[in-house]
Amino acid sequence: MTVEVRQHQRTPLWRNAAVLKWGAQILVLIAVIVVFVTLAQTASSNFTASNVSFGWDWLSDPTGVQIREGIDTSPDSGVRALTVGMMNTLRVAISGIIVATILGTIIGIARLSSNWIVNRIAVVYIETIRNIPLLVQIFFWSALAIGLPELTADDVGEYWFKASNKGFAFAWIFPDGGFWPWLIFVVVGIAVGRWVSKRRMRYQEETGNPGHGGRYAFAVVVLFAVVGWFAWPIFGWLEPVFDWVSDLIRDLPAVIVPIVVAIAAIAGAALWIRNFFESRRTPAGFGKMTDDDWFRVIFVGFSGIVVALLAFVVSGFEIRTISGEQLTVAELILDGIANFFGWLAGSFSTENYNTVVEGQRSGGPLVFEKAAVILRGTAEIPQYGETGMVLTVPFFAIWTGVTLYTAAFIAEIVRGGILAVPKGQTEAAQAVGLKRSQYLRQIILPQAFRIILPPLGNQYLNLFKNTSLGLAVAYADIVAVGTTIINQTGQSLPVVSVWMAFFLTGSLIISAIVNYFNRRMQLVER
Amino acid sequence: MTDEGVVLVDDQELAPEPPPKGPRIWLRDNLFSTPASGVMTVISIVIVLFAYRGLLNFVFDPLRRWDAVTFNMKLLMVQAYPGDEMWRVWLSVGIVFGLLAASLAMWRLGGMAEPRRIGAVLMGVGGAVILGGLLGPFNSTDVVPPNAPAWISEGRIWWFIVGAVLMVIGYALRAATGERAKESIIPIMGLVGVLIVLGLAVIWVVDVPVPAKIVDGQAITDGAEAAGVRAPQVKVFRPVAESTTIPWTLIAVVSVIVYVFFRLVGGASSAADAAIKRTLTVLWVLAFPVLVLILLRKPEWDWAEGATVHGLGFLVMGAIGSLLLWWMARPGTGEVGRVVAGFLLLLAFASLFIPMPFVWRFMLLALALFALAAPSFGGDGSRGLIVAWLITVFLVAFFVFTMDTDSGIDVPGSFFLGGLSLTIVLAFTSIVLSFPLGVILALGRTSTMPIFRLLCTAYIELVRGVPLITWLLVAFLMLPVALPEGIEIGGVLRAIGAMTFFSAAYLAENVRGGLQSIPAGQKEASRALGMSTIQMIVFITLPQALRAVIPALVGQVIALFKDTSLVTIVGLFDFLHIARQIIPAQSQPFSFLGSIKETLIFAAVVYWLFTFTFSRISLRLEKRLGVGER
Amino acid sequence: MDNEFSDQSAPDTDAAAGGQAASRTLGDPIVVTEDVKKWFGDFQALKGVTATVREREVVVVIGPSGSGKSTYIRCINRLEAHQEGTIIVDGIELTNDIKNIEKIRSEVGMVFQQFNLFPHLTVMDNITLAPQWVRKQPKDEAENYAMELLERVGIPEQADKYPGQLSGGQQQRVAIARSLAMKPKIMLFDEPTSALDPEMIKEVLDVMKELALGGMTMMVVTHEMGFAREVADRVMFFDYGTIVEEGTPEHFFTNPQHDRTKLFLSQIL
Ligand SMILES: Nc1ncnc2c1ncn2[C@@H]1O[C@H](COP(=O)(O)OP(=O)(O)OP(=O)(O)O)[C@@H](O)[C@H]1O
Ligand SMILES: [Mg+2]
Questions:
Q1: Which of B101, B146, B161, B554 could be joined to B259 by an S-S link, Cβ 3.0–4.6 Å?
Q2: Average pLDDT, chain A
Q3: Contacts of C130 in chain B (CB under 8 A)
Q4: With an 8 Å Cβ cutoff, are B31 and A455 in contact?
Q5: pTM
């Protein structure tokens, strides 16, 4: 049966849904690009006018930056200064995350306690800390620490713990010359311990006798640690191996870097596109590709090519090193990898044994030190010595601030997660006669963990970013160091891009770790 | 810095339920149920006692410079706002409180409370006060300041008396309500009334510490008089200045009257109610820009320029726009209208690169947006659309004109407000501005158009991945060089910009959650009814999405309010900056050097009051809207 | 409708039903689909569907789950875009032309299995929203017509309630009224009674029957064989994305040709 169509002329362009859809998108894309290009152009012309040009030379130029604490207090170059800042940021972030998690979990559980007074303490903690801006808290901790008594000449001596307006110093255990070889022992010990514990568990299931898996595993780990304490020099042969690898890498031609990157990018894109076509293929041939499908394919292919090209372009850039050489980025990267292996070689060197290497304390894997107050310089100013752990006032302020603050949020998350576990689980656990602490640890928390994990990851990200508030109390984190460099050199754009790269990378890593555990949890569920 | 608003789901208070079973049983059940619990209780009590004593010691230590706070109260609130213009501030506060009272009355946001819980709280506070008396004295470290009221310098007896009175009132409340104590029968607004009266009594009766210099046995407390005087500085106790007590009293009285009035008027007829509510909403929307831009700023209008640039702009754009919209909304125009609207949008974009008065650019952009919406919203007559257009153009012209005008309030520094008032302006403006941006980003990220999705996702993740302080630094260190010559943006505006862009990314994620929670069937149904994408978003998806994420949005508002404190790092004179930098560095006429702990604690308390109140209101709202149920 | 299938043995109702169908004189073709094909990724949901629906005709579409029934009727108002073949509705071909899409959407009403009422709007607003903003009707006109429709579907008293406060059957009747408010020429129903309790099914089917009697062109995906037999002019049987068999209900239920059809009917009846 045929029917006449009243409107069968070609669709005009401005009425074509596909044209409109892609036209609008491309126009907006162009608009965004135009805005960015214009901003960049004005910026660069403003800079030319004021005789500053953005570049990366400041990375290697000697700086006058003095840093109050960190692995290097008078760095010789911009890159070194930024590295010190990064390490300081990471120091706060990592230790803060660990402590905030523990504290937050305890408070979250206390918040659910049937003990009225414990419960109320948790409520007061959470409601106070959460509702006050973090920056106010950081300033408060700083003011509190600065208000402590000064160090005087009478204080000279060794201490387990000492607080003063210069900060806090206490006894601590540090890794030492034999630390890395010893760590191998411990890691192997943990692996063996797990295997042993599994064996014992199977034994328990088969025979019904108690297997004491945990105790066996613990004993194995301790055994390995003790043996390793004395036997670590046997890994000395790793030193020449790593040295050899290091030399090998140093001798490679620099082009290898962009080639590897480009091959990886293009291969990745090609693989993705192949899989995508594969998923659109039917027994009867190709299925229809929608315009979205085509966009994806084009986008991935395009990105792959762009990354590959960029790899070549960027790796050709020349950067001046501290020694004044002009090196390309590719050479620098190779150098960096080679240096890393060189460092590894040094870590396994048996020369560390019983000799005090500069910057390290003695020969063993770990060393215990008490804190000390000494008189420094000709003016004989009382100060904390090099030994023990010294927390400066800025570190204390920012660390306490972000840790306590994040702990309050984590507590709420933990509480929410526990409450979300169905009541029936508790009842069932009680019915089989588990004690409160037992069922909390073995039944409720593992289940709650699944709910807790994603928001917990968010809190880790927040804590990581909040460390940047150290700037306000002059803690030498990456933002503070960067600000100083900007003030000295005017290189705002490069420094800001370093900040962004650092924080985005850090955020990505945290997300990746959290996602990994999340996925494992989801697997356990099934 | 922004914490994904963790929202408290209220747990019907795990709190104690004393009397019915008797205190012994309560103690056994709630504090000593197991040996372990008993040990924890004892440890906790010790901790609490030490913390409490430490707190009291800190607060009542005569070395504490609370006079740094009380003396500088005006500085903390409005920085250097001129004294003879202070009525503008009071009027603004009064207007806000009046609107608040009216809204509370009309929307019946009061609710009821249980006398039993109130009684328990009163008894608890009374107990704490008595305990404080037992833990004292706190003034052993220093000489008693001259002029100190008896209840500090002398006897702890007052602690016991006050505590006992509170306990008696609490107990009486429970006894008086008897069996009904468990029901919610006491109106919360009544309690608020009692608190207002108490607050007034405090500012009229209680003396506060202020610094003074003693000359000939006379205490000089006035800063101007004391400026040149060389004499030791002491602390004396004086009543709150009348310039503060009288306005507050007036505001309180007016607010109560307004509340009662609207309580009486409201509920008479639903039509009248709806009209009043609508009016109130409009007033709220208008209040903020009017107060900040006009009342507090005292703009010195240049009427000639107003008539030539802004007035003319309004007339021309209003006329052209009306004609255009009328034509576009005609059913016959069809798709040509859409093409024209797209062209207008391009024009508005291009106008950024053509020198012209800023207001014209704004209007062009507004016209483009109106034109885009015209086919979707213009009815047959499209009268509503044109009226909306005229109002928009007028507001744009008026506010750009106002912003363009110098402030008549002359203060040191570049912005006419400082302290808490600046903090509030920063927070409010950024929230209001970031809201539309956040919604657009969320729509983009959930759109079916891949390039939009890509752009919005990139924006959101980039902004969220980097801390707010870096964005503030970018705005303060880099923006000035990236802007074309001739465009200068003041510090406050820069901070608002940075916070807006930052908070929009977080808001977008919240809104996205709401958008994704809407079942696909809703969109299909609206499509099947022939709605355009804009209509679908405006009528169907957005209203539902926003309702679903109200708690998260309020959390975001709270987070942004706390985040405003970061501007102190880039040197704006916000509340925190004055508290931690300005006051502890004051040496003239009175020295408050090093009084940072006191001012910080005061700042913390103020921030806390704001955020805590906000989170409680959001809890109530959440229950009222029954968000959780759907 | 608890014993729909025993209707077979009740010749009087059957005759009446047949009479209903016969009393409608079918008009010109209004929906024409020719060799319509549609893929979801690598899965082909429609493998060339050719069919014609005429004005005032009631077509019932049946078939096993996943056979493409929903996909087919969703293509007719372009909730899904077909990729090959032609679909012509009321003389307008469905292409990428947005003007045609808009036009067709407001001329083709659709009722869903899950009702898809707007939960944040009252029943009245649900019905008047589209007429007001899409058809640009004045508000009171739209409201009057909405009231009329609510009376027709038998729930005028529910106008100010929210969808969440109504029973499933009432919600589905509101959904029908909402579609009718746009004065469509064709109504599509996608399993309108599948999400309903048995006692509510009848009230919805009654409304649909009345609609059919009033001369509405309808395409109905349903498993209610009683409805098909009583009201339909034609039944289409779908399987694996094609029309396996079509014919009058009489032919279809008494004398199916294909083995697939026979098997399906034997399972469902
Ligand atoms: N959006 C989609 N994406 C991918 N596959 C889809 C989509 N919609 C439908 N399909 C697939 O297309 C096929 C036909 O689906 P359709 O909904 O048309 O079946 P149906 O005949 O209506 O079944 P039912 O009776 O269960 O409603 C199914 O196999 C389904 O899995
Ligand atoms: Mg279906």
A1: B101
A2: 85
A3: 526, 529-531
A4: no
A5: 0.88
